[in-house]
Write a structure and sequence with these properties.
mainly alpha, Hypothetical protein af1432
Length: 188
């Protein structure tokens, strides 16, 4: 059992090497990794869960596992997924293989199924956080000169569900990705 857990941890670390492929379509040469995306999305999910009075721990647990299948099938962007049949079934099979024999497998698979059902408040928050993270990253890329990423931001805006995510979206449009450090200049 412990060997399987150790292997799962090593496999999860592989997400650091898998790059977000959809970003390359807009000309970004060195995109963020799936692990970077997952960490940032988890932070956003936790915030949104509190703003929406949802189960923050459940939402965060949902996020931590939502991209784990990409260790075996890679990051499949929208253009690529247009030509692949059964992406969700592939992800489910990967998750089953990854969790096989682990005492917490049922918990992880239940969270995955809830995420796929798209019906709970936690799913709405999870999806919004996933989209918001992509929009924040895209905004940074746009400000760095990759104008092709603006399309991703526009698509995300149309997809957001919760009022909290929409209010964050609104403020983000008026904020530069470097504004967070402005108050630090006043300290010196």
């Amino acid at each position: 059992m412990i060997k399987k857990i150790v292997n799962l941890i090593f496999e999860s670390m592989h997400l650091k090497r898998i790059k977000h492929e959809w970003v390359r379509l807009a000309g970004v040469q060195f995109p963020d990794s799936v692990a970077e995306h997952s960490l940032n999305a988890a932070q956003i999910w936790y915030i949104l869960a509190h703003m929406e009075w949802a189960d923050a721990h459940k939402v965060t647990a949902m996020l931590v596992r939502h991209d784990i299948a990409e260790t075996r099938i890679g990051d499949i962007h929208k253009v690529w997924s247009r030509y692949i049949r059964g992406k969700k079934e592939m992800e489910k099979k990967v998750l089953e293989d990854q969790m096989d024999g682990l005492e917490f497998a049922d918990d992880i698979q239940w969270l995955f199924l809830e995420y796929e059902e798209k019906s709970t408040l936690e799913w709405k928050i999870a999806k919004d956080a996933d989209y918001l993270e992509q929009a924040f990253q895209a905004k940074e890329y746009v400000e760095l000169g990759h104008q092709g990423m603006q399309n991703r931001i526009d698509n995300v805006w149309a997809a957001l569900i919760t009022d909290s995510a929409k209010s964050i979206r609104q403020e983000m449009t008026q904020t530069s990705f470097t504004d967070w450090r402005q108050w630090l200049k006043k300290l010196s």
